């Protein structure tokens, strides 16, 4: 019998499916629940065990991991008679890897403590490719002892794993991450349009730019998206819109001014309003092209 903790995984989307599969590859017993039957079938094919409800998934778990789109979904699976807090055993470690508001994480930790359930907020960065390759950055909020216990699980999912502070700190750092990523993608998109309108070989230009100070993980990961106009979602505009709302609100609450971030948040919102919310966030290029007179 394996001595590894039994894991319940709630949410098998673009990120959740490959992450849960990496835990299975690492030897963990994973029981999963999500709303889409095909995702449950995928989990079963990878060696996991599908469950018919949140309650069924978590009842025998040592560790419960949630990876769902936003705060309302976290609250939906955590609270209520069929939720995690009512059905997980006391002593269970709940790791929320969704990207949600810091306050939602703080409130969840407080509610879980009353049930004897420990909580870490542990959002990730790296997108679908990072999830598949198990090279995610994991930014964690919570208690040191719980972080230490969860570290082997995180090491099966990512490469950069940091405890950032108390409950909510992981989400605060993730909000900052999303701010940086959005501004970076916007700058890259503007550079692409500028280069193309100037008649420069775009591939050559992006290669040399990525080798210097202008280089970034964003440019490395999204260069082919820009070159091929391939906006198959690795991280959807809809979700980045949600995240820009989180960072804008959180910054206002602490008195931090985000002049560039606020503009990019509006550009993300504009792209979503034009029907591009389901595209990858590299589709910010489409917004710049429209503003520059192109029909896209």
From TrEMBL:
Arranged from A to Z, the UniProt key words for this protein are: NAD, Oxidoreductase
What SUPFAM superfamilies is this protein classified in?
A: 6-phosphogluconate dehydrogenase C-terminal domain-like (SSF48179), NAD(P)-binding Rossmann-fold domains (SSF51735)
The 3-hydroxyisobutyrate dehydrogenase-like NAD-binding domain is annotated at 168-286
Domain (6-phosphogluconate dehydrogenase NADP-binding): give its ranges.
Answer: 6-165
Domain of life here?
Bacteria
Q: Which PANTHER family match?
A: 3-HYDROXYISOBUTYRATE DEHYDROGENASE-LIKE 1, MITOCHONDRIAL-RELATED
Keyword Oxidoreductase on entry: yes
Question: What's the protein called, per UniProt?
Answer: 2-hydroxy-3-oxopropionate reductase
């Amino acid at each position: 019998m394996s001595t590894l903790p039994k894991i319940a995984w709630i949410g098998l989307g673009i990120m959740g499916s490959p992450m849960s599969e990496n835990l299975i590859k690492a030897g963990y017993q994973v029981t999963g629940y999500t709303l889409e039957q095909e995702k449950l079938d995928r989990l079963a094919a990878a060696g996991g065990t599908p469950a018919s409800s949140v309650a069924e998934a978590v009842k025998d778990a040592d560790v419960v991991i949630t990876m769902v789109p936003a705060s309302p979904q976290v609250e939906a699976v955590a609270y209520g008679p069929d939720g995690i807090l009512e059905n997980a055993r006391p002593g269970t470690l709940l790791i929320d890897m969704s990207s949600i508001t810091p306050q939602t994480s703080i409130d969840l930790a407080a509610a879980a403590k009353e049930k004897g359930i420990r909580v870490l907020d542990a959002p990730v960065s790296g997108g679908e490719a990072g999830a598949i390759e198990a090279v995610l950055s994991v930014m964690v909020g919570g208690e040191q002892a719980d972080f230490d216990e969860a570290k082997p699980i995180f090491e099966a999912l990512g490469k950069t794993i940091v405890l950032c502070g108390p409950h909510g700190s992981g989400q605060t750092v993730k909000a900052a991450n999303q701010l940086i990523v959005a501004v970076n993608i916007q700058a890259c998109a503007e550079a692409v349009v500028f280069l193309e309108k100037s008649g420069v070989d775009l591939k050559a230009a992006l290669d040399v730019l990525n080798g210097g100070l202008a280089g970034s993980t964003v440019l490395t990961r999204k260069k082919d998206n820009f070159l091929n106009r391939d906006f198959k979602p690795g991280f959807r505009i809809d979700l980045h819109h949600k995240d820009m709302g989180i960072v804008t609100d959180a910054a206002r609450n602490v008195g931090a001014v985000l002049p560039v971030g606020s503009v990019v948040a509006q550009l993300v919102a504009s792209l979503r309003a034009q029907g591009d919310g389901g595209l990858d966030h590299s589709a910010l290029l489409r917004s710049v092209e429209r503003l520059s007179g192109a029909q896209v």
